[in-house]
Amino acid sequence: MTLQEFKDILHNGVWKQNTGVVQLLGLCPLLAVSSTVVNGVSLGLATAVVMALSGAAIAPIRSYVPNEIRIPVFILIIAVLVTVVQYLMNAYMYGLYVVLGIFIPLIVTNCIVLARVEAFASKNTLLPSALDGFAMGLGLTAVLAVLGGIRELLGKGTLLSGIDLALGDMAKDWVLHVLPNYKGFLLAILPPGAFIGLGCLIAGKNWLNLRAERKRKSGATVIPIEAGCTPAMH
Amino acid sequence: MKRIARSTLQTAINLVFFAVIGTAILASVFFLTHDKIVKSEEGEKLKLIMQIVPSALFDNDIIQDKLDVPASELLGTGGTSVAYRARLKGEPSAVVLEAVAPDGYSGKIALILAVRANGELAGVRVVAHKETPGLGDYIELPKSPWIKGFDGKSREVYKDADWKVKKDGGQFDYMAGATITPRAVVKAVNKALIYFGENRDKLFAANPPKKETNK
Amino acid sequence: MWSSPFITQPSSVSQIMLRVLLALIPGIALYVWYFGPAILVSIALASVTALATEAIMLKLRNRPIKPFLSDNSALLTAWLLALSIPPLAPWWMVVVGTAFAIAISKHLYGGLGNNPFNPAMIGYAVLIISFPVHMTHWLTPHALGGTELTFGEQLGYMFNGALPAGLTLDAVTMATPLDTLKTQLHLGLSVDSIRDMPIYGHLAGKGSEMVAIGFAIGGLYLLFIRIISWHLPVAFLAALFATAGVFHLVDPVHYVTPLFHWFSGAAMLGAFFILTDPVTSPTTARGKLIFAAGAGLLTYLIRAFGGYPDGMAFATLLMNICVPLIDAWTQPKVFGKKGGGK
């Protein structure tokens, strides 16, 4: 893997084909757990780890898996990896495990994981595949972090609340009370806030793209949407 | 025909192979993390219990000293629930009960409450509820200290008429605009205390722990 | 943009809106009579916020400001929102609700004519979801006696959150008649004994029933001058009446009369002023009947079995989502197209 390839994969995963605001894949966990920065980043990182591992696991065996059973085999591998992550979080980050709840096992059904394995890992070698999965996961994590930040700030006036669930009791004082005596704006924390917030983020990304396009003075402004998985709510 | 059968067999073997490897990995991770998971879950339960049972009240392994409580109308429980017993030097000091308030604004409210041996409430917590966010959810501790208003109350001091919110002539606070929720909780706690009064001996006596572990 | 077929005389948007505002006046006058002038401050505050937000959004969208600003549609949204929330609502709630209604539910969808949801009802939904406690503090009508706030004291609460010494919110506010009904039914009382409570009058809540009649009078005026078509209010009120009637006949101990439902909450305001928003209601006559009857049914279901005391706003929004579907269903088939003839 050359340095250029490395950069391309990273750029593609985090920015150009961002799962949250460009491909719009895996929106259900995205909307459900983005009520705080800590929740969003935790689930994002868990997904990134699963994606990196599944890319790494599937790339080397891709030539041994008969074409007709590749989907069940891929899902099997992803399910195993997700369950491993679930066990580990249950054992070592119990508080967070309870908060994220059903959305950890549901990473299996997040179609972005299978989509990347199908589109990338089944055609590439180990290192690029792992990197691709991880970069995609990082892109998702970034969206979750920003969305979680907006919702938490508007909804509760804090940032990083619940960080002690992820990092233990020593982190209890790290919570930032950005707006002291804030009355709270419940809408931002509740599901509508997630939809409105995500809509604003997508608009922001499109606006940045448009501006970049205009600078380059080239015509096309259409953002390609990755095929292979419908942008449904999974 | 033979070729088709062979390729089908090969595919099946292939699939089985991956399934076996997957199962092996899962099984080993399960055994590696199982103890730790059980410990985390118990730790979490203990944390919740410690919130309502002062640690000075018990020296036994409270998580292990449990008792199955049959469904009861007074507790509002539809099935078997679990009671944890706190003991100090072998003497019963408090019991942790699960109770359900069936008539919250939007459904059931699940509670746990700790009752001292003398019938006084050591503490109450809401475990699960579906009340309106921002309106009825002040029964949750981080949102408001309201639930602490039960600490130290008993049916000894408060008679039936007192177990109501102040709006209805009772002794318990409420927030203007959301009275159904606290009403339901106060009523459920009162009923749970009645249950405790009727079953006190049963709750403490049955199934004494095999061995007390000092902590 | 403005193509609804029921407008019989050619009028500009701003003239129509002006008449609708005019039709709200009897209701507002009765509101002031029974509950004091605080509502006027709310309406003024909402109007200023609406116009300012409208101007900012038009500027951001590079649209001409003056013609759009003077079409009065933002004013109507502001008035309807102010009339739907408690008159004592703190100033920041009025501002947040109105700004949200105009900026997000109107302009982000493409401005007047393109918004799928009634902006005022979106503003209301945002407020009741976000600040449910404040949304339960309704003023007690004069007719009930008891402590009354002077106009200055009402302003003090709206802008500083301060009540005169010795007064609690409980002493000067009360739950709405619908809310009280729900709470008392929950406690196991029968409808008859609840209706005997002093807050209830002949039809529904004391004071608020008269305000509802005021809105109905304004609505009839709009019907008379043909700014709104009869389909919407009639289908809505009929569906609400019929559903409430069935429940009341089957179990009069637990379900109030249909008339009570007509004259409490936002039913009258909704029937004549909210559902009739031409942008967010269907265009065909049959579509209007389906739309309004659905809203009536949902309003009743939310009131009787839902989590909020009044269901007008949520029923309107739910039916708003269905409008494209209803329009597609009820559009007369083009002659000669397959499946056109029956």
TrEMBL record, chain A:
Q: What is its main location?
A: membrane
Q: Which GO terms describe its cellular component?
A: endomembrane system; plasma membrane
Q: Which residues cross the membrane?
A: 37-59, 71-89, 95-117, 129-150, 185-208
Is Electron transport set as a keyword in this record?
yes
Q: Which UniProt keywords apply?
A: Electron transport, Membrane, Translocase, Transmembrane, Transmembrane helix, Transport
Keyword Ribosomal protein in the entry? The reply is no
Instruction: Name the membrane topology term.
Output: Multi-pass membrane protein
Where found, per UniProt?
Endomembrane system
Q: What is any one GO biological process for this UniProt entry?
A: electron transport chain
HAMAP family noted in UniProt: RsxE_RnfE (MF_00478)
Q: What is this protein called?
A: Electron transport complex subunit RsxE
Q: Which organism is it from?
A: mine drainage metagenome
UniProtKB/TrEMBL annotation, chain B:
Extract one GO BP annotation from the record: electron transport chain
Mind telling me which InterPro entries this protein's record contains? FMN-bd (IPR007329), Ion_transpt_RnfG/RsxG (IPR010209)
> What keywords were assigned to this record?
Electron transport, Flavoprotein, FMN, Membrane, Phosphoprotein, Transmembrane, Transmembrane helix, Transport
Q: Which Pfam families match?
A: FMN_bind (PF04205)
Keyword Transport in annotation: yes
Give GO MF terms, alphabetically.
electron transfer activity; FMN binding
Q: Where is the FMN-binding domain?
A: 104-196
Name the GO cellular-component terms. plasma membrane
Q: Which residues cross the membrane?
A: 12-32
Protein name as annotated: Electron transport complex subunit RsxG
Species, as recorded: mine drainage metagenome
Provide the organism lineage as a comma list: unclassified sequences, metagenomes, ecological metagenomes
